[in-house]
Amino acid sequence: MPLERREFLHTVAASGLAASATAAPAPIPTVPLGKFQVTRLIGGYNPIGGHSHSVPKLSVIMRNWFTLERTRDYLLALEKNGINTWQASIDPKAFQALRLAREAGSKLQWICLMNDATDAQWKEIIDLKPIAVVHHGGVTDRLYRAGQQRKIRDFIDRAHDLGVMAGVSSHVPEHIALTENSSWTHDLYMTCFYNVVRDMEKVRESLGDAPVDELYLSKDPEKMTAVVRQVKRPCLGFKIFAAGRLSTNAGAIERSFRYAYSKIKPGDAVIVGMFPIVTDEVAEDASIARKVLGGGPVISG
Question: Which residues contact 256 (CB under 8 A, 6 or more apart)?
């Protein structure tokens, strides 16, 4: 299914991401998010910002590959492949790419993942008309551990005062459950399939050792999705491929999509970061997600 590396790099050299932008496939199924309809596959941001959740060299390669022009082309490719929403963080390159995509006719919706921001940053974000802003998961989890949840509620209130939906992101199932049981007025969640913010001292006490870097445990998705099914608000699941560790081939990608969509609520969606340097991941992921959501045959292997 994927293009051979040499063939794909030749295609990229000739036309950037144009290969994924030549056809207009059937739309990916959508779900409501407030007054908006979002596709159940949402384009992610981490490769654009160089957040590989792997090794530093890969992060640098990602960030350098995603020039302003390639980031714009990525946004256009999302839309051309039936994805109508993108999630991004505060990043001048991302913001400018969104402006350029809109100048090219894009109607792509976007969600801003953020936490503390200056008044000027808030103004720029609101001027770019996000459909929602979401409190950053790592910060959410840190504030919960410090007993400073009030800051998350203040973020929600400020977003609502500015006329935009507000969400809460977290890597910790218990923090999602606590937020759902609060009196806060947030509109949605971003829910990480893997708890990559564990207290390493507790891990060391449990195992007698600690991982060198982030820890991905096979039962984490089961724990988070159990909470996702219990909360009433829409959830946008992310890291469904364990930051690329479960996307080694088309069969593995399909299994991860099938697992995610079967474990979240029918009104939920997933966010997937795509890095089309070796294969056309935008077209591939959109095609597999569309097939899974449509009940197509399972890929073997």
Answer: 240, 241, 246, 247
Q: Nearest 10 degrees: CA dihedral of 183, 187, 193, 195?
A: -40
Bridge partners of 31, per DSSP, are 38
Reported as a single tens digit per residue, the pLDDT across 25-66 is 777 999 999 999 999 999 999 999 999 999 999 999 999 999
CB atoms inside a 10 Å sphere around CB 259 = 17
Which residues in the chain show pLDDT less than 50? 1-16, 18-21
* Secondary structure element (H or E) that encloses residue 38, with its range: strand 36-39
Question: What's the count of helices (H) and strands (E) in the chain, helices before strands?
Answer: 13, 10
Cα torsion through 151, 152, 156, 158, rounded to 10: 20
What is the pairing mode between strands 188-192 and 132-135?
unpaired
Burial of residue 215, with CB atoms counted within 10 A of its CB: 0-12 exposed, 13-18 middle, 19 or more buried: middle
What is the set of domains in the chain, with CATH numbers? 5-18+34-197+213-292 (3.20.20.60)
Structure tokens at 107: 């109607």
